Amino acid sequence: MDVEKIRAVDTARLRRFLGEERAGGESNPEEFFADWAAREATVKASGKIGLARIARVQLSGGLSRVDNETWQLHFPQLASDYAACLATDVADVELQIQDLSESLMKYSAA
Questions:
Q1: CATH number of residue 68's parent domain
Q2: In the chain, which residues have pLDDT < 70?
Q3: CA-CA distances (angstroms) from residue 26 to 6, 19, 21, 22, 63?
Q4: What total number of domains does the chain contain?
């Protein structure tokens, strides 16, 4: 799983990893971070992390592929200013999202 805060994107730094075509986050940061979350979630699910591997991830619809492995992508809606993706080898996943922010606030205030 990967979660990213949607923000302005400095595409110049990303071009060396993603190439010119996929680094165009300036015009649509929401789409860029959904794509980035899918790539990072895929790399994490594969168990072989590394920033350079993110560029090798192939995305197509609700699937991703890296190192000859295919992953199902699920995009839960967390908050309007966040993009999230879960990559899994299970096609039919029921995600349960809980807001724990109030519980965490109580814990941190103690």
A1: 3.90.470
A2: 11, 13-27, 104-110
A3: 11, 14, 12, 11, 24
A4: 1
pLDDT at 93: 81
- Domain holding 41, by residue range, is 2-109
Bridge pairing between strands 58-60 and 69-74: unpaired
pLDDT score of 58: 93
pTM of the shown model: 0.79
- DSSP string covering the chain: -EEEE-----HHHHHHHHHHHHT-TTT-HHHHHHHHHHHHHHHHHHT---HHHHTT-EEETTEEEETTEEEEEE-----TTEEEEEEES-SS--------HHHHHHHHH-
